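Exercise 7b. Backbone tokens:
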């Protein structure tokens, strides 16, 4: 990979097919309590922080559980999915192994958390491949700001221009590009409506890692 020393990957929607998890948690949580899942509830949950969403759910449905208990239940339900059912995208593991064998440093920049992430990596044969795993909680801002990518690059000992970032979200691609990193947009069904924009703002878009792991270089 010409002039590239480090590859930085997002997890959800980029390396693994996990975007279904929280919708399933919402549905299973409410269904277990005899509460129908409405479109209004689903729409509101998308824009809320975790604790705010738990408080909203408790108040809306008059649940006896505390906000903390609801959050822990949600986390435990998500943990089960990540540890048992979430699978790597096609060709992702082979591609990571290829980069590693070529001496490329591997980093992860994610908004997820270790409780969900680590068993998912283990379940998909990816644990131990990454030289560092960095979380947005460590930098205090989301991916609309490039701090998480710069932080990960620093941990890998690479300059921004020596990094390529793999992401499935528009904000991530824009942020990484804004600091001189090359970008590969990864298709996920959840970002289908933004596909054209992702193609326009990234150096390259892929639909499967099989497009890459037989190549000797990324054309970005």
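Sequence design result:
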């Amino acid at each position: 990979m010409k002039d590239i020393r480090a590859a930085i990957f997002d997890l959800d929607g980029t390396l693994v097919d996990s975007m279904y998890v929280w919708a399933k948690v919402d549905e299973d949580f409410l269904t277990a309590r005899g509460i129908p899942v409405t479109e209004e509830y689903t729409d509101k949950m998308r824009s809320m922080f975790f604790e705010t969403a738990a408080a909203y759910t408790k108040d809306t449905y008059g649940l006896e559980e505390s906000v903390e208990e609801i959050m822990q239940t949600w986390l435990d339900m998500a943990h089960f999915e990540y540890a048992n059912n979430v699978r790597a995208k096609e060709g992702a593991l082979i591609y990571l192994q290829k980069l590693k064998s070529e001496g490329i440093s591997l980093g992860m920049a994610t908004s997820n958390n270790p409780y969900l992430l680590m068993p998912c990596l283990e379940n998909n044969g990816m644990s131990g491949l990454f030289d560092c795993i960095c979380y947005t909680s460590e930098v205090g801002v989301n991916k609309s700001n490039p701090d998480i990518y710069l932080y990960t690059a620093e941990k890998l000992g690479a300059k921004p221009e020596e990094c390529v970032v793999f992401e499935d979200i528009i904000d991530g691609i824009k942020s990484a590009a804004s600091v001189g990193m090359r970008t590969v947009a990864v298709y996920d069904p959840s970002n289908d409506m933004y596909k054209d924009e992702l193609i326009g703002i990234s150096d390259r878009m892929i639909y499967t890692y099989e497009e890459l792991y037989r190549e000797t270089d990324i054309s970005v």
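Instructor comment: DSSP finds ten helices and eight strands in the chain. Strands lie at 6-9, 16-17, 87-88, 105-110, 132-135, 163-167, 182-186, 204-206.
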